[in-house]
TrEMBL record:
Keywords attached to this entry: CBS domain
Protein name according to UniProt: CBS domain-containing protein
Organism (species): Roseateles subflavus
Cross-referenced PROSITE patterns: CBS
Domain of life: Bacteria
SMART domains associated with the record: CBS (SM00116)
């Protein structure tokens, strides 16, 4: 189960198929696909076409090895293992940012903790977005003749997190299956997702690194559940 949150609060809840029909999630997918094209990322050139039909149609844009792996997950038998749900691998508590923080404050806070992203909360503690540190300085601009003047960065640092975060953004529940989580991360090209309770409060964060650590140190990890 996933729930999408934005500045106005809860947008939509449901499984990954229901999210694929959500205008908010499709809009986020288009943004992520466009960003991937700008970075020259893998499969980026093919990503913009299938996204118009929803997340589920993006399977054709994935590398062959990814499609084969997901096909195995989809067709695998239904069986339970100790590590089959998000709650088993998530990091908790999660470090969160405030939407009113400056980019300078947020950047330094993430850097001190060695984090590349963090959920963004409203003043009353609700999830409203996700800030990705790497996207504040797009790699496509590095070494480019179009690199903005220094005043651009000085101005950027004074702007707020709310102005640069991804929103609306999905949040996973602790009961979400790891297979569905992995699928959504692939579809949206996100490094991780917040884990939220029913009130929209952030109880943890699960990243691709958390999944890899679980594979390496906490076997068995069940992506079929």
């Amino acid at each position: 189960m996933f729930t999408v949150y934005g500045l106005a609060g809860r947008v939509v809840s449901g499984d990954i198929e229901q999210l694929a029909r959500s205008d908010a999630v499709q809009a986020l997918a288009r943004v992520r696909a466009a960003a991937a094209v700008g970075r020259g990322a893998e499969v980026a050139g093919a990503a913009l076409q299938p996204v118009q039909a929803g997340l589920t149609s993006q399977s054709e844009a994935r590398p062959v090895v990814v499609r084969q792996a997901l096909a195995q997950y989809e067709g695998a038998p239904d069986r339970e293992h100790p590590l089959s749900r998000v709650r088993a691998v998530m990091s908790s508590p999660a470090f969160c940012l405030s939407g009113g923080m400056s980019i300078d404050e947020a950047w330094q806070a993430l850097q001190r903790r060695g984090l590349g992203q963090a959920p963004v909360l409203s003043a009353d503690g609700r999830l409203i977005g996700l800030l990705l540190r790497g996207e504040l300085l797009p790699p496509s601009l590095m070494g480019s003749a179009d690199l903005p003047n220094p005043w651009h960065w000085q101005h950027l640092l004074t702007e707020t997190v709310e102005q640069h975060m991804l929103s609306p953004v999905p949040g996973a529940s602790p009961q979400t299956s790891l297979r569905q989580l992995a699928r959504l991360l692939l579809d949206l090209r996100l490094p991780g997702l917040p884990v939220v309770d029913e009130a929209g409060g952030v109880t943890g964060f699960v990243s691709r690194s958390d999944l890899l650590k679980a594979l390496a140190h906490e076997p068995p990890l069940d992506l079929w559940g």
